[in-house]
């Protein structure tokens, strides 16, 4: 039908014309029709040939251009064959008080990637200029988010300094990002409180935060105290202590950076506990979830009321947090009590971890999230 209309328009072909006019127009149409038939038969084959040829050339070109960086990126980007996994609410908390609270609204989807080796991660940090000495000098981190697992070879690194440095490089962006998220929430909270009228959107946001921080009576004063950061040096020290600088079974198998216990969620049974013990060490899909659960634990659990009060006092008096003072209020975090806090102080001081307390993560940071 399309061809017929086209021919009618081109040659003014009309079905009601005389028989002689029919033959005259047909004589004009035949050559043109033969050309069209030829083109329709040849073009698909030519197009297929060009595509195959282009594809072949592209493969050759790509093979000839491969270097270390391309090989690394290609390895990092291999995530098509991995199923998407979901982090449920129970993966985020180490104790049962939040089991019935829908904090995040929806489950978060994450990619379960191939586990990177320590050497690959170290080379990646070198290539991106991620150096702890530079971080301490500039007070900035240009690495965004984030490795999802610790490398298995971490415990086999002979140099203690290299092992510690690599561990800090991995956990530092995770801690900074969570602190940044809390800091932004805190700023928004105070903006809302300074308004003369609270909008419906603001009220809904506050309701979410009340649930997130386990405040059932919607007490603003409690929310201000709970919604605050954990000093970077303190978080690194606890992660180092609980994982043996990333070498523990719980960290390697369950992404558990802070040794939190669970009675209801997924976890790993400690080998040294009594057989009748019901608790496990909380297990997480990714490292980031472990950091989130740790922050939520210190900001909500009744055992750390004095920790949060001291933190609020430091905010009011100094405008910043002092980890070496706050750590003294974490004696209930471990069974060893005060001895545990002394170990943390030693880790902070010996490794100069307070140098990281003022470090910021750049808003335009280099994101490696999609590569790993």
Name a few traits of the molecule.
372 residues; mainly alpha; three-stranded antiparallel sheet; globular; disordered N terminus
**Low-pLDDT regions:** 1-23, 54-69, 78-113, 364-372
Give the strand line-up of the largest sheet: 4-6-5
The topology string of helices and strands comes to HHHEEHHEHHHHHEEEHHHHE
The end-to-end span amounts to 54 Å
Number of helical stretches of at least 4 residues = 14
**DSSP E strands, number:** 7
Query: Could you tell me the radius of gyration in angstroms?
Result: 31 Å
Q: How would you sum up the major sheet?
A: 3 strands, antiparallel
Q: What quaternary form is this?
A: single chain
Q: Helices and strands: which structural class?
A: mainly alpha
Helical fraction equals: 40-55%
**What share of residues are in beta strands?**
5-15%
3D shape: globular
* Average residue pLDDT: 76
């Amino acid at each position: 039908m399309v061809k017929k209309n086209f021919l009618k328009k081109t040659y003014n072909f009309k079905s009601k014309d005389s028989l002689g006019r029919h033959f005259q127009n047909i004589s004009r149409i035949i050559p043109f029709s033969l050309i069209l038939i030829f083109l329709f038969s040849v073009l698909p084959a030519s197009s297929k040939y060009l595509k195959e040829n282009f594809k072949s050339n592209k493969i050759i070109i790509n093979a000839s251009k491969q270097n270390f960086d391309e090989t690394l990126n290609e390895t990092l980007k291999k995530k098509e064959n991995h199923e998407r996994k979901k982090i449920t609410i129970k993966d985020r908390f180490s104790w049962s008080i939040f089991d019935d609270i829908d904090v995040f609204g929806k489950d978060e989807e994450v990619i379960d990637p191939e586990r990177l080796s320590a050497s690959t991660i170290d080379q990646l940090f070198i290539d991106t200029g991620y150096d702890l000495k530079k971080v301490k000098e500039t007070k900035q981190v240009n690495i965004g988010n984030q490795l999802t697992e610790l490398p298995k070879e971490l415990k086999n690194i002979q140099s203690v300094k290299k092992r510690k440095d690599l561990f800090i490089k991995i956990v530092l962006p995770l801690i900074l990002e969570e602190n940044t998220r809390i800091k932004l929430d805190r700023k928004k909270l105070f903006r809302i409180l300074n308004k003369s009228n609270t909008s419906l959107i603001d009220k809904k946001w506050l309701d979410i935060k009340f649930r997130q921080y386990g405040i059932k009576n919607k007490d603003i004063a409690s929310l201000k105290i709970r919604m605050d950061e954990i000093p970077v040096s303190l978080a690194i020290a606890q992660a180092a202590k609980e994982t043996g600088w990333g070498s523990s079974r719980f960290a390697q198998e369950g992404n558990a950076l802070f040794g939190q216990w669970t009675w209801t969620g997924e976890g790993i049974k400690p080998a040294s506990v009594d057989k009748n013990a019901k608790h496990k060490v909380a297990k997480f899909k990714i490292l980031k979830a472990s950091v989130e659960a740790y922050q939520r634990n210190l900001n909500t659990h009744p055992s750390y009321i004095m920790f949060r009060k001291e933190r609020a006092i430091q905010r009011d008096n100094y405008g910043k947090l002092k980890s070496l003072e706050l750590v003294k209020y974490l004696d209930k975090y471990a069974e060893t009590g005060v001895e545990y806090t002394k170990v943390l102080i030693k880790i902070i001081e010996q490794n100069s971890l307070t140098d990281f307390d003022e470090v910021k993560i750049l808003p335009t940071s280099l994101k490696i999230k999609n590569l790993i």
